[in-house]
Amino acid sequence: MRSTAKGPVKGNVLVAGAGSALARAVAEGLAARGCGLVLAARDEGEAARTAADLALRFGVATAALGFDARDAVAAAALPARAEAALPGGLGGVLVAFAVMPDQETVERDVAAIHDLVDVNVRATLVFIEAAAARLENRPGSFLCAFSSVAGDRGRRKNYAYGATKAALSAAMEGLWARLSPKRVTVLCVNAGPADGAMSWGVFPPDSPLLVSPERVARDVLSALEHRRRVVYTPWFWRPVMALLRALPAPVFRRLPI
Amino acid sequence: MAGLSDVSDVSALRAEGFPYRAARLSLSGWGRFAVEAGPAYRPETWRAVEAAVRSAPEPTLALRGLGRSYGDSALNGAGAVVLTERLGRILAFDPDGRTVTCEAGTSLARLLAFLLPRGFFLPVVPGTRFVTVGGALAADVHGKNHHVDGTIGRHVEELTLLLASGETLRCSPTRNAEAFDATIGGMGLTGVILSATLRLLPVETPWVRVVRRRGRNLEEVLARLEEEESLSRYSVAWIDGLARGRALGRGVLMRGDHVLAAELPRGKAVSGSLPERPGPNVPFEAPSALLSPLTISAFDALYYAAGRDSTGLSGPASFFFPLDALGSWNRLYGRRGFVQYQALLPRETAAEGCRRLLEEISRERAASFLAVLKTTGPEGRGVLSFPKPGVTLGLDVPNVGERLRPLVRRLDEILLALGGRLYLAKDALTDAATFAAMYPRLPEFLDVKRRLDPNGRFSSSQARRLGLAEER
């Protein structure tokens, strides 16, 4: 589950999907620890604004790249572009891009399924392989991906998105087996619903289930420093999901969730 | 991030091709007086702001930063509210040119936490640092240095305004100046400020040297305010809202200046910062009975601590933002909330006006907390900006129920008769005719607004009440 060694997070970190509030919060936590940052987002202007803010407030080197996760070729090329953008090589990679269409949309629109799988599975797996190839020979580096509690169980209201996150979680487990002997931290973040653009208008803003981006960032940074394999954020999702996974499907189906 | 429980609350109004959902929020101004529930957007990117402006299905949008305006400036009835809180990045800093550029949702607290350790202060700060830059420009805020430095609008080098059409307009005092002058103090009704560049004040230390003096009554306080304003960059008086008769308007005058490094006593740190987050929240709505003893003791503490004359060093937080030490002090007024009444009177009628306003409030036994008195200097460029030469008096008026509206109406009448005006960031109850009489440049503002926003996309409950925007 965890190795005993604890170490600082350091070096330049590539954040793929830097446009979301979650990714920005983790990037800020990394900047506060002195990491250089390459921020890649579909909207390069947004990445550039976040890069400017973090460089100014934390005095770290930053760079911004435009990156469209619908393009798997671009995903494969991103780690090399990031290394070219900021001298010093990559010490870590954060996978934070994903789409979450409504389940009803997925059920009536094949294009939405294509888009979901293109971004959350195709580009994501291509990207983490490209990242793994670079980090493999860098002991002390890390690869961290945002999965979701939705990937732990297939739920009537969200199974398509959940299926893509289950794929990511499985890939991260395998990567952990492959890279942790080489002293590369591989962390899968199973976040509950977070207070960001994806959940705005879906959950009431004062819902006790919503986790703030800052809290997610604290949990992720702490898990990276402790070289964990899996972190649930907030922590209560771990026992909740353990319980839900133990339920037989006919029972799970009847839950009002 | 999908979770385990969905909510039925997805906006039914989601337009085709507009990918953002609105959340239903119940919002109020800082006075917690009017509460309105309605759809709200919280864009995290400039594109999302633009999408909301162009395509959100609600008829109008009101802009809202940290919600520190007291009344209904950032509420919008059946329209939507756009929250800027997720757009708070510092975009550029030029220590040689003494400027900083940031997004409109950046709080002054964040800016000061960044600037103070680097030897700069904001040229104008209001009584709280938990306002956004966008809100500060929209209200064209003033501070304790208005008599020297004017409003914040005077220190804006440039701003980027997103118009209702989706175009962005760069405005400054020399470029698109009409749009600039209508936006400074324009309460968010001309467009969305995406970013702004502010000129900064270099300071050698974070400390302020404060001189306190007591004034035994209103006349003495006013006379001393005028005589002291040339002595310091900052000056203000806190007056006792409860004192009556011969002691009416008794108070404490405070003036202050930034301390130079060479003047700093041993043991005081040359550099320092200000926390970015507020102090602990008032955890509950106070029963109204708590207020008066608290008020009295707060005032007495201040009054007697001042002694005859005292000079001391103060940190920036306690001098500029004494109320920020409590997270949500507005809860002290209980569930029914309060309104702020901030009046500006020309110097000739200031003494009479302040006396009559204080007496009127004291007659209703609505007085509470401290009142703030401050001299103001020349008008700035903002077409609807509040300050002009005179004296401004700010009072909290607790919601006394049915008596509140008639009381505020009487206060408005006093103010109008004496050539005064009200501050839009505080107003909650005035009517359109009174407002028009107080702001003679209103037609000029409406003309520019019509050109920048021909379909009336930007509005607010206050704007409709006061005739700043049409009913839609």
What can be said about this structure in brief?
The complex is a heterodimer of chains A (257) and B (472). Chain A is an alpha/beta fold. Helices cover 48% and strands 16% of the residues of chain A.
Can you put this structure into words, describing what you see?
By secondary structure, chain A is an alpha/beta fold. Chain A has one domain (12-253): Rossmann fold, CATH 3.40.50.720. Chain A contains 9 helices and 7 strands. Chain A has helices at 21-32, 44-58, 72-85, 103-108, 110-135, 159-179, 213-225, 237-246, 249-254; strands at 12-16, 36-41, 62-66, 90-95, 142-148, 185-191, 230-233. Chain A has a 7-stranded parallel β-sheet with strand order 3-2-1-4-5-6-7, with helices on both faces. In chain A, helix 1 runs parallel beside helix 2, helix 1 (21-32) packs across helix 7 and helix 3 runs parallel beside helix 5 (110-135). The longest helix of chain A is centred in the middle third of the chain and has 26 residues, at 110-135. Chain A starts with 11 loop residues before the first strand and ends with a helix. The longest helix of chain B has 17 residues, at 347-363. Residues 1-15 of chain B have low confidence and may be disordered. Chain B is α+β, with helices and mostly antiparallel strands and 472 residues long. In chain B, helix 9 (347-363) runs antiparallel to helix 10 (404-417). Chain B is 26% helix and 23% strand. Chain B has 2 domains: 90-203, Uridine Diphospho-n-acetylenolpyruvylglucosamine Reductase, domain 3, CATH 3.30.465.10; 208-430, Alpha-Beta Plaits (2-Layer Sandwich), CATH 3.30.70. Chain B is built from 13 helices and 19 strands. The interface between A and B is large, with 42 and 32 residues.
